[in-house]
Amino acid sequence: MLCACSGEQFKFEDAPRSPESLATRDFSASGLSSRTGDWESKFEDAQVDEAESTLRDALSLNYEEARALLGRLEYQRGNFDAAFQVFHGIDIRGLTPRMTRAIVERTWQRKPRTKGDIIYSREMSMHSVSLLLEAILLKAKSLDELGRTGEAAKECKIILDTVESAMPNGMTEGIGEDCKLQEMFHKALELLPKLSTKAGCLDESIAAYRRALVRPWNLNPQRLASVQKDLATILLYGGVETCLPPQLQVWGANTPKNNIEEAILLLFVLMRKVASCEIDWDPEIMDHLTYALSISGQFEFLAEYVEQALPGIYNRAERWYFLSLCYSAAGQNEAALNLLKKVSGCSEARHEPHLPSFLFGAKLCSQDPKHAHEGINFTRKVISFHDQTKHFMGEMNKFLGICYGNAARACVLDSERVVLQRESLNSLNQASLIGHKDPELIFSLALENAVQRNLDAAFRNAIMYSDMVAGSSGRGWKLLALVVSAEERFKDAETIVDLALDEAGRIDQLELLRLKAVLLIAQEQPKQAIETYRILLSVIQAQREEVQAKKLQSEASAEKILETQTWQDLACIYTKLELWSDAEICLDKAKCIEFYSSSSWHKTGILLEAQSLYKEALVSYSVSLLIEPDYVPSIVSTAEVLMKFGKTSLPIARSFLMNALRLEPTNHEAWLKLGLVSKMEGSLQQAADYFQAAYELKLSAPIQSFI
Fold this sequence. Notes:
Number of strands: 0
Structural class: mainly alpha
Shape: elongated
Low-confidence stretches: 1-61, 109-121
C-alpha cells in the first residue's frame, strides 16, 4: 500500500491470484491458464516463447489494474492526493496504443470459428480498457480537486483521443452492454469542457463541446440536450468569439457566422425536441433563447416559440404578457395591446389580476394618442391595487397624466377638454413629487406645459430634462428650441439647434436639421434654408446606401417621413418665391415617396392657390381630406378658398373653421380666418374677439407643432 501511494514502481514476483482481477479472469476465459503446468500440457515447445510473452503481458496488465483499483479506493475515501500518486504510476502513454487496438478489435466483425480453433489474443480485454479509462477519469477528477484544473483537462483529453482514434465514426451500437467503456467515455465528454471552462480556457471548452456533438456517441436524449444547452450558454455569455472550424462548415452560406447564430441554432434544436416531447421542458432553454433572439432583434421568431410552448407551461395571462413584450419590441404595438386587452377582459375576471400586463398596457397606450382612454383604464386598474403597487405610483401617475393629455387633444367638448388638461397636469405634477429624478417624467411635464402654452414652466422643465440626460437627448433639445421659438426668439432657437446637432443621434440629427431650416425661413433667409435642406437630403441619401439589414424598421420609416417633409418644405419655399416649376418638382418627389400623403396634397393645393387656380386647389384640399379627414391645415385652407367664392360660401367656410378649432383649439390661423368670415358677414365685435384670440395664440405659437 505504501509503495502504491508513493507512486514508486514495483513488480509482482508471482502472478496475482485475486479473483477480482478482470484481466486474469479474461485471460483464463480464453482457455489459457496462468499456471505453468497447464501451459506445458497444452502447447508444443515451439509455442512456449509466445506463451511466456503473453503471460508477461498479462502480469504487466494486472500491475496496472492493481493501481487502477487502489486509486479508485483512495478517490472514494476522499484522499485525492494519494489517489493521484497511485494513478500517476500507471504508464498511460505505453498502454494507450494497446487500449486503442483492443477497442478496434472489439468493434470488428469477427469471423465464425470452429470448435477446435485456438485463439491467441495478445490485446487487452474490454474490461481492462474500461478500468484503465476509469483510472484516467478519476485521475483527472483528483487533479481538479487538487486545484490543478489545466492538467486535469489534459488527462481527460487522453480518454477522448484514445476512443476517437479507435472509433473515428462514432460509438458502435451495443458496445456498452458488457463493459463500462461507453459510460466512462460519456463522463469524459461531459467533464472535459467543464474543466476547460474552470481553467479559463473558453475557446478550448467550446471546441470540446463541439467535439462531443459532431459524432454519434450514443448519448441519451437528455444527456445530449444538456451538452447542447451548455454549449449554447457558453457561446452566448462566454465573451470569446470562436468561429466554426473549416471541417464543420458543411452548410455553405447557411453556416452560423458567429457565436450568437450558432447558439440560436442549438436552442432551436432544443426547442424542437421539447415540442416533440423528446426531452423534458427546461425553462433555462427558453431564457437563453429569449436573450439570444432579443439581442439579435428577432422578436417575431421569439413570439413564435412562445406560442409553441405546450399548455400548462405558462398560464394564459403570462403567455399573453410574454407575447405582448415580443410584439411590442418588434414594433407591433397594436398586436401587443390586443393581447393585453385579453388579460384585462372578462375571461380573466375570475383569476388574480396580472399587474405587469396592466402596467405594460398603460405604457403602450401612453405612446399612442388613439388609445388614450384605454390607457386611463389600464392605469386606474393598477392604482386600484394601491397596497401592491405603492412603488409603481410614480409611473402610474406619469402614464395617467400623458393619457389625460392625449385624450384632451382628441376631445370634442371644450368643457371636457379643460377638465382633462387640468387632470393631466395634476397627475404629472403628483408623479414628479414621487419620481422627481425620472427624466422621462420631466420631459412629459415639459411637453404638456408647452402644449397648454405654459411656456415658462415648459422652459424650466425642458432645461431640467436636458441637465438630467447631460444634453444627450435630441428630442429634449428640439423641445427646448420649439419653446424658445414660441417666444419668437428665433436666433436663440437656432443656436440651441446648432449645439444639439453635435450631441444628437442619427434620426434626431435629421429632425434638428429640418428644424434649423424652418427657423431660417422664419427669419426670412430662404437661401440658407434651401442649403440646409440640401444637406439634409444628402445625409438621408448617404444613410440609405448603408446595408438595410442593419437598419431598424422604425429608423427606415422615420427617414422616409423626414425626406417627404423636406421636399414639402422646399415646395413651400419655391411657392413663396413664385418658382412654380421648382415647387412642382419638389411635390412630385414627395408624392413618389408617399403618394397618399395628406400633407403633400395640401402643399399642392397651396401651390395652385398661389397661382389663382382656386378650383384646382379646392380639389387638392379635398383629396387631402379624403386621405385624412381630420387634417387641420387642409380644413383651414379649404375654408380660405371658399371665402374667395363670395358670401354664399361663407357659412360653409365657417363650418370648416369651427371643425378645425374643435380639433385644434390653439390654431391661430383658424381663429384669424374665422375673424375674417365674421367681418365679411358684418359681425364686427365677434370678428374683433376672434382676431384678439388669433393674436394672443400667435404670440405663443411654436415654429413647428410640439407634438
